[in-house]
Design a protein that fits this description.
By secondary structure, the chain is of the alpha/beta class. The protein has 2 domains: 253 residues, no CATH class; 118 residues, no CATH class. The chain has 17 helices and 12 strands. The chain has an 8-stranded mixed β-sheet with strand order 1-2-3-8-7-6-9-12, with helices on both faces. A hairpin with a 4-residue loop joins β10 and β11. α5 crosses α10, α14 packs across α15 and α14 crosses α16. The radius of gyration is 22 Å and the shape is globular. About 3% of the residues have low confidence.
Length: 442
């Protein structure tokens, strides 16, 4: 990692990396909502946050070669980025290693460089007084809507924010939202696409870590008090069990990583906004129930990742063929009647025989869950069981087919417990009481 450079003309920062196989890469992160340049805003704390972001952004370029050594920015040990790097470049890239056929866990030597190209001024124009304002990460899905509803219920002023990598994604995000979204922009090095096309390693990266740090930096620059994400406790479940170790597609959404990142942010900059996930105590079942009560977003939101591809043709809000479409329709079904589902989905996905293999994966009836941001196996089994008791859904193809298999795995008593557990708050979290109370009143 060569270092970062704040722009003197624009609200942007460039980050540079050297790869042992493919040479220099450079990426620019910009904050268009800010009117002034970045360079004269950077004090010591913000510089440390930018070094953390440099570490997180680096996963996109590291995976081209999957080298055995990572050289971190100077000062990395002081601002805890070495701890974050060891998680991101190992657990955070678990899916990449497994699907690329590379050894996992990898053996990586992390060391700190002796110098850094970063430029930090000795002052900041930011006030020490944080506004009682929350920046809420927005991704277009039900979780984002529920998170923002909780913040508003708590009486805290909020703004929706999203990190995007193309105008196409920006437009798709804004279409899904019911209010204006503040956008942050990543401009990947075009060389990355070239080396990938030439055969460099490629695959999933822990994008939530990158987006989290971008939003924390925006919060720092706008004196926000809170930076809020919508990662639920269900994200802790691994996607695949490899015996002695497990790989989790959602590692950077997990409670374990949230704790590491909170510590790193606090060590880097005591003036940073408080970062936490507002949905951490809750399951996907709880979130689906809360979202179903909102009604207003039904015709806007989408969880289908095909809407957020960097390039290509525009697609319908729901493709009806992916794990996210299958999962979202399954979780919402117990809380909607059939007429309400037509306001959301183009078809009844629970009747689609082509989706059966995906629903089997969601219910843990295959070797691994889908490599996607979906709920736990127990949640999905509990929902199938619940739908089997509901006249509106019990005759659906997916329910009829999977209910006997699910009952064989767990039995009625245990499946009923899974359902009740899904409706209750549980587990360690960092949610301030003002938001927790609001969530329970939602």
């Amino acid at each position: 990692m060569v270092g970062w450079q704040a722009s003197a003309e624009m609200p942007a920062v460039s980050f540079s990396y050297d790869c042992s196989l493919f040479g220099r890469f450079s990426e620019t992160v910009s904050f268009p909502s800010l009117s002034a340049s970045f360079a004269d805003r950077v004090d010591e704390g913000l510089a440390s946050l930018l070094s953390l972001l440099q570490v997180a952004l680096g996963v996109s370029y590291y995976k081209c070669a999957a080298a055995g050594e990572v050289i971190l920015p100077a000062g990395a040990e002081l601002n805890a980025s070495k701890s974050v790097a060891s998680r991101l470049y190992q657990d955070g890239l678990a899916e990449f290693y497994v699907r690329a056929g590379l050894p996992y866990p990898p053996k990586i030597n992390f060391r700190t460089s002796s110098s850094n190209d970063a430029r930090a001024s000795d002052h900041s124009e930011q006030s020490d007084a944080h506004a009682r304002q929350a920046l809420v990460a927005y991704g277009g899905g039900k979780d984002s809507y529920v998170a923002d509803a909780i913040v508003k219920k708590a009486g805290i002023k909020s703004r929706l924010c999203s990190a995007v990598m193309s105008d196409k994604v920006r437009d798709a995000i804004q279409r899904s939202a019911s209010e204006p979204v503040i956008f942050m922009q990543r401009q990947l090095d075009p060389k990355l696409r070239q080396v990938n096309a030439a055969g460099a390693y490629n695959g999933h990266v822990p994008i939530t870590a990158i987006n989290s740090l971008m939003l924390v930096i925006l919060g720092r620059l706008t004196s926000a008090q809170f930076v809020i994400f919508a990662n639920e406790r269900s994200a802790d479940e691994p996607t695949i069990d490899l015996g002695d170790v497990a790989a989790n597609h959602q590692y950077s959404k997990s409670s374990e990583f949230e704790a590491y990142l909170r510590d790193a942010i606090a060590a880097a900059d005591p003036r940073a906004p408080e970062y936490f996930s507002i949905l951490r105590p809750f399951s996907e079942i709880w979130i689906a129930r809360a979202f179903a009560n909102l009604k207003q977003p039904f015709g806007r939101f989408t969880s289908c990742n095909r809407n957020f591809q960097i390039a290509g043709e525009d697609v319908p809000r729901w493709c009806g063929a992916c794990a996210k479409c299958a999962f979202t329709s399954l979780l919402l079904a117990p809380f909607l009647d059939r007429e309400e589902t037509t306001r959301i989905f183009p078809d009844n996905f629970l009747e689609k025989q082509a989706l059966l293999p995906i629903y089997r994966e969601l219910c843990g009836l295959t070797d691994n869950k889908p490599w996607d941001c979906v709920g736990t196996i127990n949640e999905c089994r509990a929902v199938i069981f619940r739908l089997g008791q509901m006249a509106a859904w019990q005759d659906s193809f997916i329910v009829r087919t999977l209910l006997p298999l699910v009952l064989n795995e767990n039995g009625e008593e245990q499946l009923s417990k899974f359902w009740q557990d899904g409706l209750a708050a549980a587990g360690k979290h960092f949610v301030p009481e003002v938001f927790l109370s609001a969530a329970h009143d939602l």
